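Input set for joint prediction.
Command: fold jointly, output tokens.
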Amino acid sequence: MSENRKLIKIATAGSVDDGKSTLIGRLLYDTKSLTTDKIEAIERSSKQRGYDYLDFSLATDGLVAEREQGITIDVAHIYFNTDKTNFIVADTPGHVEYTRNMVTGASTSQVAIILIDARKGVIEQTYRHFFIANLLRISHVVVAINKMDLVDYDEEVYLKIKADFDVLVAKSDFTEDQINFIPVSALKGENIARQSEEMPWYVGNTLLHHLEVLEPADLQESSVARFPVQYVIRPKTEAWHDFRGFSGMLYGGNLKVGDEVTLLPSMNTSTIKSIHYFDQEIQEAAPGSSIAITLDTEVDLSRGDMLVKSSSVPRSEKQLTATICQVNSKPLKVGGKYILQHGVNRVLAKVDQIESRIHTDFTGTETADQLKLNDIGRVHFRLSKPIHFDTYKENKANGSFILIEEGEYDTVSVGFIE
Amino acid sequence: MNNLLIPNPKEAESIHIIREVAAQFERPVLLFSGGKDSITLVRLAQKAFYPARIPFPLLHVDTGHNFPETIAFRDKLVEELGLELIVRNVQDSIDQGKVREERGRYSSRNSLQTTTLLDAIEEFKFDACIGGARRDEEKARAKERVFSVRDDFGQWDEKNQRPELFDMLNGKIHVGQNVRCFPISNWTELDVWEYIKTENIEIPSIYFAHEREVFLRDGMIWTANEHVFREDHEEVLVKMVRFRTVGDMTCTAAVFSEAVSLEDVVGEIRDSSISERGARIDDKRSEAAMEKRKKVGYF
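tokens >
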């Protein structure tokens, strides 16, 4: 794994027939990420179906059921790279019922590509996709206006769609520099990896080049350090007799040896004695590191507890308000009890109040007594024990949670703490 | 002492997942095939728990048709790292009449492994099986979760998967269910090879170019060996080859290669135009082959 290659995670969103799978297939083809046997398989399938072009969507549409229906029905992960960048694409379906899939795909992504069919323009689905990108605070949005070949590569069409979309941008938390518009034809490869000669009026980057030069904010994002204890390492061997390493992933900011830390929930303080990454002792770790930490005092600290710098302690509360997206067909109801998983910590949670259901087209809210699959709403919870959180805006990892229902243990909701 | 650790994001994610498995389950096991992906998993597990030992055993479902080099490598690795190894044999499942040996031109024990695996899960009451599957391997795997819940029959229900949000993993299950855990889901084949090179990880010799008795069929290079069905007219040749994946001799095709070092191999993969599973004879049987096998409990 080349350490100097950047990793960019992308979520794609589009409505049925916007050509999303074709776009991804085209990116794979143009970056030479499709192997000969895969191209042969695509040629074979395309021919069988009687197409006179290569149906790149066949490169990503995985499951038999959806091949039959001709639409993508779940989140698929696709990988490709250029010399400078590794890409992971979460291909999320655009069908109206599948809001949950885009939320899921977008939760691990830094960039969202929203596809618009140039013939149809901004439609209700576009509102929803952009709403989710906004809710999840994705750091960059690329609006790919596709099928330009079917509108004679007309600049007027592009400008009209851009103007319509800008109305949405004004209603969101995004700033203009977080949004880019690119006119493309995925089928023909125009402005994907190759600058289109059909659209000389477009002077911006191709899609691929744009994705390569992006520096998504959360790659360098520096807020405050949060270290949830995942697993306590106790070797109990002669050489490591007294070793107690608190292992986990570091979020938000650096930690270094000698830092004064506060342990939650006990509120005890200690000092970092050593930081371990496999058999190396390191002085300081950057966010995203999976490490083990030892402290210079004997402390009571176990899985689900949190270690933070004493200079910036998060909130610890038994009540919280969150925006919820329901990702399971079992509805969220007032009085319902759930297992709330916040990072690696689990507590019990009860729904105190559903304040509102939020329209996903930026038109406001309405009252609701339950949230159904794909609904988004504002909900108040009461917890069995305090959790140690930041708002989602401050720290994505420490400001989000999932709800697990107690019957089948399905993941039913995702929450963004306010 | 190193000053500042800048994480390799894919490695850090994998270590996080492996620690989640150890923390959320009572009896995890690492499914070990002797191939490069499972060897990579062992290194990642070492990193996750150092200086403690890896807190779960390895399970090898042995078809009896493995390359002898793989088995020798497996035993050496286990010995050197002080790991616990459990071996269960497909031959036993055949002898017990639970599965029937395939016959003829494309016969393989690959699909018979499922029964032996499910029996071992039941025997040891494993609640989590860590596997080296990657989403880039095959279309159906692209939709696999990191934690994938299987029912009592080991079945995968692709329509009813738990959504995985951010890096939060939900491994809560009922008695009788188990979870397949895939820590290197997000790695590509090239990632694995580059990692093996960077980390200087030892791998079985058959990954490097060597002389071997082979024969050609359907444009693929097959090992000429007592376990592999061969027609009389299929001529045995001695060629320089290597393997890109290590499965059964009956279903793993070789590639012509001169790559004798890790550096050569990484270079070859980077320029390669055939996917790794393109050399898996079992996937060629039908377009939806992998998805069908997954539904009945294949890795």
